[in-house]
UniProtKB/TrEMBL annotation, chain A:
InterPro entries to which the protein is assigned, alphabetical: DUF1468
Sequence ranges assigned to domain DUF1468 in this UniProt record: 22-155
Protein name (record): Tripartite tricarboxylate transporter TctB family protein
Organism: Ancylobacter oerskovii
Lineage start: Bacteria, Pseudomonadati, Pseudomonadota, Alphaproteobacteria, Hyphomicrobiales
Keywords: Membrane, Transmembrane, Transmembrane helix
Automatic annotation (TrEMBL), chain B:
Coiled-coil regions listed in the entry: none
This protein's name: Tripartite tricarboxylate transporter permease
Segments passing through the bilayer: 12-36, 42-69, 108-132, 138-162, 169-186, 198-220, 323-342, 354-380, 386-406, 469-489
PANTHER family linked to this entry: TRICARBOXYLIC TRANSPORT PROTEIN
Segments forming domain DUF112: 21-437
UniProtKB keywords: Membrane, Transmembrane, Transmembrane helix
A Pfam family of this chain: TctA
């Protein structure tokens, strides 16, 4: 990253397009990783293509594209890196993980409120009381609509101790 | 006039009470989710797709068609009332539609968009019915080489349509193709790129991609701004456009329908071009082009009709050639595959009930929107008044339910989360997700067709030049890429939005 900062300060920055530089570098690394992952699979010949042929050459193409972006970032003026706002993604991701972890083990009636309460804090304007009311209402609404009316395979409440499962 | 007879048969299928009810339910739910800001048709259909799993194939597709049109209409409603277009094609509607809403003519804008969509839908339905048989017989002369070349053309077209850098669009397509290769190799069954994980062994569902890249990632982006958006508190006004407005809209609706019908047939998501093309055309033809952007009803009527016509005719490549031209159609393929239907030319002959029932139900979906959904606009407005700090929580939980209902697999939710982070990163680096989606949609089919084509030609790439139809598509693809690189054309395309 120091290279980037140096680039940003100078009058003649080394990297003229930080956005392209980072994107290109990432693509090269990702492509190399994919090629490495495919190393155990055979590529076959053009006449009888193996499972690795298309993914490997696609990855090579992506890597080359990344290389071009990196080269371009030294030559052409481009945009600076954009700021990432982490609050929203962090809370929403946490809520997704919570939902994934609890939907099967305890069921929707617990998973949904937990994940919604977590997600809600992703907004800077969160109002806890309002969020709680909304969460309860949404849980009931979704349970009725998706499970009762639409008959979706959502486990509602799983309590092995009381051998409840519906 | 064989196809008219078939169409009547289709209406008979679609009009059974159960199917009407399902179409209606689909429309309602589609609008309900589609109206949420930032949620376009792709995410909406992805969320609601599991609802159709338990139905019989014809009913499932009819309900999906309802969801599709509901989603489209919900998107227009959101862009007219909130100026938050859920997808790129609704951007054009927002230009004049939102301006009309600010002048207190939201009702007329919503009304004309529903009427225009209905007219466009009616005409496009007839177009599909008329073109389906000839195109399906064309498909019989297509071998793997032709299919591969045609899909290549579609991808080239998607590059041409992408906003921003052509080079980045090509990279996006490659990434899409790479993502599509995750999972078993179709010929040898060997697993690729799965990290040895069971939950990746079947590859990534297109629905996950839709919800991650177009649903949750959009939530991330919207959370940056906080409660900046303003809900239109002004009155909606009469839903029926005045006689004058109707007269002004009649021609734009017909022109938009024509444009949309033609562009929608092209592989590579030509439908997205339709609203832009229609808007530009109407602006060029108008006596006072200055009115556009200031609440001109033609600027809503034309693009909305074009959008709907294009959305409808984009079923043609899917139903006749089996090639999904965009992500929405790929979701339809997903739904069909679950019911054991392989989309392609054989559907029409083997399952006439399903084929013509689906086509007729498209028209019914449009009619539903007009007579049932439009009067409910007050409800959607109320929904839009829910502050975003709560709305996004609802979007997140809908996505969770949608993902979980597909396979009852919690790990799928984590895949969606990863795709969402990826989608957010894409926007931070100015990459567009649309070409990626198309690469993903076509990736597997392209690999299979390439493999078969090369097997037949004994490994010689010359097969793509020696076969005239394939050669034609390859040349077309090269021409489109060349056009995309020419700067003057790119500039002209961006001009639509200036002033």
């Amino acid at each position: 990253m120091s290279l980037l900062n140096k680039g940003g300060d100078g009058i003649h920055p080394v990297i003229r397009s930080p956005q392209n530089f980072v994107a290109g570098a990432f693509l090269i690394v990702a492509a190399a990783f994919v090629v490495w992952m495919l190393s155990g699979l055979s590529q076959g010949t053009l006449r009888t293509m193996g499972p690795a042929m298309v993914p490997r050459w696609t990855a090579v193409g992506i890597g080359l594209g990344g290389a071009v972006l990196v080269v371009l970032s030294f030559l052409k003026e481009g945009e600076a890196l954009e700021r990432w706002h982490l609050r929203g993604p962090i809370f929403v991701l946490a809520s997704l993980v919570i939902f994934a972890a609890t939907i099967r083990s305890v069921g929707f009636l617990v998973a949904a409120p937990l994940s919604m309460l977590t997600a809600g804090f992703g907004s800077r304007e969160v109002r806890p009381l309002e969020l709680v009311i909304f969460t309860v209402a949404m849980t009931v609404f979704c349970a009725v609509v998706f499970r009762v009316l639409l008959n979706q395979p959502l486990p509602m409440l799983v309590l092995p101790a009381l051998s409840i499962q519906f | 006039m064989d196809f008219l007879q078939n169409l009547v048969h289709g209406v008979g299928v679609a009009l059974s009470p159960v199917n009407v009810l399902l179409c209606f339910a689909g429309c309602m739910l589609g609008t309900l989710i589609g109206v949420l800001p930032g949620i376009g048709p792709i995410a909406t259909i992805a969320i609601l797709l599991p609802l159709t799993f338990g139905l019989d194939p014809t009913a499932a597709l009819i309900m999906l068609a309802g969801i599709y049109y509901g989603a489209q209409y919900g998107g227009s409603t959101a862009s007219i009332l909130l100026n938050i277009p859920g997808e790129s094609s609704a951007v054009v509607t927002a230009l004049d539609g939102h301006e009309m809403a600010r002048q207190g003519r939201a009702g007329a804008a919503l009304g004309i968009s529903a009427i225009g969509s209905f007219v466009a839908g009616t005409i496009a339905t007839v177009v599909i019915a008329a073109l389906a048989s000839p195109l399906a017989s064309l498909a019989l002369v297509f071998g793997p080489a032709e299919y591969f070349a045609l899909m290549l053309t579609g991808l080239a077209f998607a590059v041409l349509l992408a906003r921003g850098s052509v080079f980045k669009a090509i990279i996006m397509i490659l990434i899409g193709i790479l993502l599509s290769t995750i999972g078993p190799d179709l010929t040898t069954g060997q697993l690729r790129l799965t990290f040895g994980a069971v939950w990746l062994a079947d590859g990534i569902e297109i629905a996950l991609l839709g919800m991650g890249l177009f649903g949750i990632a959009e939530v991330f982006r919207s959370l940056e701004h906080g409660e900046a958006r303003q809900v239109r508190q002004t009155r909606i006004g009469s839903l029926l456009p005045s006689r004058e407005e109707l007269r002004a809209s009649a021609r734009p609706i017909l022109r938009g329908t024509l444009l949309g019908s033609i562009l929608g047939i092209l592989p590579g998501n030509g439908a997205v071009l339709a609203p832009y093309a229609s808007y530009t055309l109407e602006k060029k033809l108008a006596r006072q082009p200055g009115r556009f952007g200031r609440g001109a009803i033609e600027g809503v009527a034309g693009p909305e009709s074009a959008n709907n016509a294009g959305a409808q005719t984009s079923f043609i490549p899917l139903l006749t050639l089996g090639i999904p031209p965009n992500a929405v159609m790929a979701l339809m393929v997903g739904a069909m595959t679950i019911h054991g239907i392989v989309p392609g030319p054989q559907i029409m002959t083997k399952m006439p009930d399903l084929f013509w029932g689906l086509i007729a139900s498209m028209w019914m979906g449009n009619l539903m929107l007009l007579i049932i959904n439009l009067p409910l606009v007050g409800l959607w407005v109320k929904l839009l008044n829910v502050p975003y700090r709560l709305m996004f929580v609802g979007i997140v939980i809908f996505c969770c339910i949608g993902v979980y209902s597909i396979n009852s697999e919690p790990a799928d939710i984590l895949i969606m989360a990863a795709l969402a982070v990826f989608g957010y990163a894409l926007s931070k680096f100015n990459f567009e997700p649309a070409p990626l989606t198309l690469g993903f949609v076509l990736g597997r089919m392209m690999e299979e067709n390439l493999r078969q084509a090369l097997m037949i030609s004994r490994g010689s790439f010359l097969t793509f030049v020696e076969r005239p139809i394939a050669a034609f598509f390859i040349v077309l693809a090269i021409v489109m890429l060349a056009v995309g690189i020419l700067p003057s054309i790119r500039r002209g395309r961006d001009e639509v939005f200036v002033d």
